[in-house]
Design brief:
The chain is α/β, with parallel strands linked by helices. The chain has 5 helices and 4 strands. It has a 4-stranded parallel beta sheet, sandwiched between helices. The longest helix has 20 residues. The N and C termini lie far apart (33 Å).
């Protein structure tokens, strides 16, 4: 069942917002499509390409580390974490997915920098390919978060 998500854009977009997309280097085709979708959604919303930076990391486990450093250095106003983790025969993939989620949550709560979580944890790549619109969704989510934080 598909859940409701912010489909539109916030009423006010600050063209000066700087967005960092931190992504895993695993599953290049699928992750690349998610990153492209996120970047295109940000551009379509009016964020200049110069304000959208991408950072490739070895795997999903490293996404929070790089995001934390970008937030600490105040180089971004929001972050999007993108990766694909495919379940294998052991529990290793689940542990990585859980820690990536926990790490990204810690970064956003401690820094006040929204950090959209789009690390897809799936049974197989077909399930990831069926969710490639999630990059666009992550972009809309951080824009909504930024707009709300600006209003508070």
């Amino acid at each position: 069942m598909k859940q409701d998500t912010p489909t539109g854009l916030p009423s006010r977009i600050n063209r000066g917002w700087r967005i960092g997309i931190v992504h895993s280097s695993y599953y290049k085709e699928e992750v690349g499509a998610l990153v492209s979708g996120a970047a295109q959604a940000l551009r379509d919303a009016g964020i200049p390409p110069a304000n959208i930076k991408t950072y490739a990391v070895p795997g999903s486990f490293e996404i929070p580390l790089v995001g934390a450093e970008l937030a600490r250095k105040q180089e971004v106003d929001a972050l999007i974490g993108i990766g694909v983790i495919v379940e294998g025969e052991t529990h290793h993939a689940r542990l990585i997915a859980e820690q990536a989620a926990r790490g990204m949550m810690d970064v956003q709560v401690r820094s006040g920098v929204p950090f959209a979580f789009e690390v897809l944890y799936v049974q197989d790549l077909a399930l990831a390919r069926a969710r490639l619109e999630k990059g666009e969704e992550a972009a809309r989510c951080v824009l909504h978060s930024l707009a709300l934080i600006e209003r508070l």
